[in-house]
Write a structure and sequence with these properties.
This protein has four helices and 15 strands. The protein is an alpha+beta fold. The chain has a single domain, classed as Jelly Rolls (Sandwich). A seven-stranded antiparallel beta sheet has the order 3-13-10-15-8-5-4. The protein has a four-stranded antiparallel beta sheet with strand order 9-14-11-12, with no helix packed on it. The chain is globular, with a radius of gyration of 17 Å. Bound molecules: fe (ii) ion. The site of fe (ii) ion (FE2) has 5 residues, from strand 9.
Length: 211
Amino acid sequence: MAQIAICGNFKVNKRKVEDNMLNETIENWYLLNIPTKPNLSQVKDLNWMQYNPRKPIARKGFPLTSLDGGTSGIPELDSLREYNKIHGTNYKESSFQKTTSAGREIFGDFLSEFKCGRSNLIKIEPGGFFPWHRDLGEDTFRVCYFFESVNPFSFVWIENDQVIPIHPTSWMGVNTKTKHCVFAFEPVVLAVFNILNTEENKKNLYKYLAV
Ligand SMILES: [Fe+2]
């Protein structure tokens, strides 16, 4: 049974906090020494599609995993919360586990080591952004790879009111359950992986912690 603890004026469901892996012992963002380091030339010819087609924001994407291994981007490149509401579906990040051809070609080693749910390449053009939000759900946790175009001057990620120091061709785990937003000043490409919340994946991840 879940225990209730009192933190300041807020009631916190203690069991939920404990179940939300990584939060207890690891920072909200942390560098990972993962050897797979693709570059922009490997993604330049992809058939990039609009991310969340209902929103005219300068964001494109391409699926690295999907429901059936296909690359239509539907619904992988949508807001799952909005898509589920419109279509009466109940997709979660863990629903998208089939590696696509691009996933195999660009991140084959990583995707065969880590069992992942919805994982996408995201291209943000100047002025493109993701507004403040939280990515809730306990079935997965997030790891990102930042291509060489991403640096502190081209891209800003604010995580729980702090700017994350992001370096080109780096891997980072980020707790996206806390509030965050991103903004691009120059064209940038990143890959966002939803790693399934399993003991095996967690053990694998710890091998790559930079510190
Ligand atoms: Fe997010």
